[in-house]
Amino acid sequence: MSKKWTIALAGNPNAGKSTLFNALTGGRQHVGNWPGKTVEKKEGVWKSNGQEFTVVDLPGTYSLTAYSLEEVIARDYIVEEKPDVVVTVIDTANLERNLYLTVQIIEMGAKVVIALNMSDIAEARGLKINFEHLSQALGAAVIPTTANKERGLEALKQAILDTLNAKKGDQ
After folding, report:
1. CA distance 39 to 94
2. Less CB within 10 Å around the terminal CB: N or C of the chain?
């Protein structure tokens, strides 16, 4: 029997975690456009190559310091449940502010894939990001996505699978 993999979606409020969750799982979780909308973790299933993956949509948080209920839920899940991969969902147009949480998660030793979401908005604003350089600097795959249009979704899925396969080799 194959191992059951768990993928957690983490990121700042309004970065598109729930939209990405719905795109991955076909779920119909309500997507709100205000901080604190997702105040509990939601789970769904993503199927690929005959294997099922549990996808967990964590509440939005700015850091793992954990002052608010949302931050406590997100931090505790990452620290205690140790998901196989944490996809950090970043609002690409606000890269600097959103990277703080990602760096904290990487420093915890979690396997991370970075979804630079809303990349269409960043492009429209004239922002240019060197994805390869960012990936090398952070030691994680960096995938530009636009979750509400399902752009970059296949590349993100492949990066998750590649990270899981690399993790298997580490065990």
Report:
1. 22
2. N
Sheet holding 112-117, edge to edge: 42-48, 51-57, 5-11, 85-91, 112-117, 141-144
CA angle (60 as vertex; 133, 135 as ends), nearest 5: 10
| Cβ-contact 47, 84 below 8 angstroms | no
Classified as helix, coil or strand, 151 is strand
Alpha-carbon distance values, 94 to 56, 127, 156, 157 (Å): 23, 10, 20, 23
First-last CA distance in the chain: 17
Query: pLDDT tens for residues 111-162?
Result: 999 999 999 999 899 999 999 999 999 999 999 999 999 899 999 999 999 9
- Length of the chain, please? 171
